[in-house]
Write a structure and sequence with these properties.
Layout (H helix, E strand, L loop, with lengths): L1 H14 L5 H11 L5 H7 L10 H8 L2 H32 L27 H19 L4 H12 L5 H4 L5 H27 L8 H13 L6 E2 L2 H11 L12 H10 L8 H10 L4 E5 L13 H8 L9 H5 L8 E6 L3 E6 L2
Parallel strand pairs: 1-2
Antiparallel strand pairs: 2-4, 3-4
Helix pairs in contact: 2-3, 5-7, 6-7, 10-11
Length: about 350
């Protein structure tokens, strides 16, 4: 693992790969006081917060967590006992007469045959133990990553039916009866979870977005370039088929840099400076989502507050997004569309 990590770091340095550089910054922000624009966009989102207490409770109710813990203890104890016995056998062989005699050779390779060369039994199960531990750590640190943890837990819990690890429960009939009882108990919580999901009814409707997309399709050239909040830009690209300069694939280093320039609309910089940045990106229209100027998931997570970390020299000034939502946005911009949620501003070159 350390070798793989080392090779990756060396190749990243040699090839100047920066796409995943933000991951180390996120970890630094999780375990320290480090903050910058990109880490704040991640850590201020609920999905990237620590795992909520509700998740372990739900896993307890479905008996998945207790089953996984039971299997984990059994498997680890099994490995420890086998390794200890293997070590005792090696000690015994080393002390036995004839231990120093040459070992028989393999006819194909002409190398001495040794028990040490033989692969460890159930190595794949040990791999899943470490995989489960890694996914658990990831999910606790970043709640969104529990999408990897839960399937791995279900996969690992299936070892409860393994005779190799649980033959000590007794005959097959008793063992499988216990497995059936566990599955039956799990299905109770699973039934209520499915019932709750099926009870959710409704339909998605976002009329302000539909109104904006229809205006874009009817009133802008097909080559007009747009910028704005990443989720909104995905809709503009998919529904209006207009070129965009940023979108939600934030793992790309170039995209992160462009998004930071675009999000200067929510900073406290001057409109002239913001226009200069957008012109360099060849933007024709900027979409300003009004709620982004004021909303925050917690203290210090509003867009102007995030920019205060990155741009302390402008701290205390009025956010540019508030000015852009006002009546007078000239001479750098011209409002061409407005509804209850979105403003579309044409960049005047």
């Amino acid at each position: 693992m350390l070798g793989t990590l080392g090779i990756k770091l060396i190749l990243s340095k040699i090839l100047h790969i920066q796409d995943d550089a933000h991951i180390s910054d996120i970890l630094r922000s999780k375990f320290g006081t480090f903050k910058n624009f990109h880490t704040m966009l991640y850590t201020c989102a609920k999905e990237f917060d620590l795992m909520e207490a509700e998740t372990p409770v739900r896993l307890l109710k479905t008996l998945l967590l207790p089953t996984v813990l039971f299997v984990m203890i059994t498997v680890v104890c099994n490995f420890v006992v086998k390794e200890y016995k293997s070590w005792l056998n090696m000690e015994t062989e080393a002390k036995s007469p004839g231990a120093g005699e040459p070992k028989p050779k393999d006819n194909k390779t002409d190398h001495p045959i040794s028990k040490d060369v033989v692969g460890k039994p159930n190595a794949e199960v040990l791999y899943h133990v470490f995989q489960l531990i890694a996914f658990t750590v990831m999910a606790v640190i970043i709640m969104r990553l529990k999408l990897f943890l839960t399937p791995q837990m279900a996969l690992f819990a299936s070892l409860i039916a393994s005779r190799q690890f649980f033959s000590w429960l007794g005959p097959k009939s008793r063992h499988y009866a216990i497995v059936a009882a566990i599955l039956a108990a799990m299905s109770i919580g699973g039934y209520f979870n499915i019932k709750m999901e099926l009870s959710i009814t409704g339909e998605f409707s976002n009329w302000p977005m539909e109104q904006m997309v229809e205006w874009i399709k009817a009133n802008t050239h097909k080559d007009a370039v747009f910028c704005g909040p990443m989720p909104t830009m995905a809709t503009v690209k998919l529904s209006a088929n207009r070129p965009i300069v940023n979108h939600p694939h934030y793992e790309d280093a170039g995209l992160r840099a462009r998004t930071k320039e675009v999000y200067s609309m929510y900073s406290r910089k001057s409109l002239a400076e913001i226009k200069e940045k957008l012109v360099k990106l060849r933007v024709n229209y900027a979409v300003v989502e009004q709620s982004w100027c004021i909303r925050k998931t917690r203290e210090g997570c509003g867009m102007p507050e995030i920019w205060d970390i990155e741009d302390p020299s402008n701290r205390g000034k009025m956010p540019a997004c508030e000015i852009l939502q006002g009546q007078n946005v000239g001479p750098h911009f011209r409002r061409v569309f407005k509804n209850d949620v979105y403003d579309i501003l044409e960049v005047i070159v």
